[in-house]
Design brief:
80% of the residues lie in helices and 0% in strands. By secondary structure, it is mainly α.
Length: 99
């Protein structure tokens, strides 16, 4: 066997090893990224639940909001958003006794 043929085989084996190492690194990087995303989602999950609970229409006010939206030809989400921004759906009266 000639040295040229042996050199070619050696070069091919080295190239194959480099490709295998690159694939392993990419797979590890992908797994690390997915793990970080999963960890972030797990850590932020309580915040998402709180936000969803706070922003959902309270059942006690839903009918009133929908009626007012229909009468004023507005989106119920707009009315609910204004109420949330002003009082967070708290039924407490203001200190100035505003209605």
């Amino acid at each position: 066997m000639s040295t040229r043929a042996a050199d070619v085989r050696l070069a091919r084996r080295r190239a194959a090893r480099r490709r295998a190492v690159r694939r392993r690194r990419q797979a590890f990087g992908l797994l690390a990224f997915l793990g970080a995303v999963a960890l972030g989602a797990a850590l932020l999950q309580p915040l998402f639940q709180t936000a969803v609970r706070d922003l959902s229409l309270p059942l006690a006010h839903e009918q009133t909001i929908r009626e007012q939206a229909r009468e004023k030809r507005l989106d119920p989400a707009l009315i609910a958003g204004v109420i949330y921004a002003e009082s967070k759906f708290s039924s407490d009266t203001s200190p100035a006794a505003a209605a």
